[in-house]
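$ fold --in a.seq
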Amino acid sequence: MTFSLFAAGSLKTTLPAFIEHHQQKTGEKWALTFGPAGLLRQRIEQGETCHLFLSADESNAKQLIDKGFALQYAPFIANQLCITARYTAVNKEDNWLSVLSNTALKLAISTPKADPSGDYSWQLFDNIAQINPQLSQALKMRALSLVGGKHSLIIPQGRMAAHYLIATHQADAFIGYQHYQAQLSQFPELKIFDIPKPFNVTAHYCATLIHSQAYSLYQEI
């Protein structure tokens, strides 16, 4: 039997090696499907076979529990946001807030409600309202939801959304997960900006047990 694992796309760089180790240790066979967590949750609700679901947020896990599609869930890692910008589009004096305030820059995010990263971006905009309500509202109107939706463009295999969107001039800046920072910093054409507390948003990744047969992997994660 081959088990089915649905996982947030942001786990694509690290999860396969972990699953390979688990397979060698237990003899279990796992098929991995990556994508935006919100869309993966919908596929589970529509009846697709999934034994274990790893989402980039707690909301999708809770929805599956509440609707009776899952048995239990637990957080397993945390993430935050950062801003990646085209190096030539920003100045040495710029910081995360000045980049977001620059209306000349095309700002991209993931698609809210379909991809948790997009929801986290909107939470960031809400946090900015503490100091600048007008900027908060303007960002919600300006931000382009270019990836992570049902009809969004597909990021080529092996490419990161931030680098791909900026390299293809579809965006000048992108709000994405902080764990990509080490990889993105290798590109001299990009500049990365940290978002400080209390404005940054913490993403709690959750493992959701859909079928009891997947309990051994669920426990290990």
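$ fold --in b.seq
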Amino acid sequence: MDCNCFKREGKNCIEIVPIFSNLTYEEMMEVARITKEKTFEKGEMIYMAGDKGDKLYVIHSGKVKITRFTDSGKEQVIRVLGPGDFMGELSIFSPLPLTDNGEALSQTVTCMIDGKKLKELMKKYPTIAFKVMEELSQRLEKAEHLIENISLHGVERRLALTLINMANEKGEVSLKMSKRDFASHLGMSQETLSRKLTVFQDMGIIKLIGHRRIILLDIEALEKIE
């Protein structure tokens, strides 16, 4: 199906993606012409490790979980993406197969952009390439930070630092993923995560509200956890 994102109410699929933010409407239309829309249901795989990647996937609505599996078969959640985010970008620049998996966490509408034609547009509009590089640099920094956390810190310190980094200006954390996926992202079991969150709450430094909301009551105490 051709992309009809420009026909939707509100901002379209191309407009909400930062890498295209500097383009004019006419230039965005050029991107739209090499784009197809596809809807994935909750739990459906958008792509899998080993697939030949030749598309950039832009999320128009919904949420997608990006994961990898260890040699032992354990799932590691890399990130959770939402509207305006993109994935599959590395395959555009490399002939190697995809190395991660993209799974829809809810009904998700994506705009799939042809990789070869997108590279041609990058030559025409270098700002697209620079924006992609900027986003990849930010993701690399986050990945290195996650690796450092898992390698150097115990589970309590790892959880405390992550909560601080995820909190908004009001000191609230709203999880975009299930606790199972959050635990996987932190490199711990769901049982360990639940136990440590309960300990933090009993200490009076956080407050758990429902399954996905966490209020940080004492950030200074969290910073001191080793």
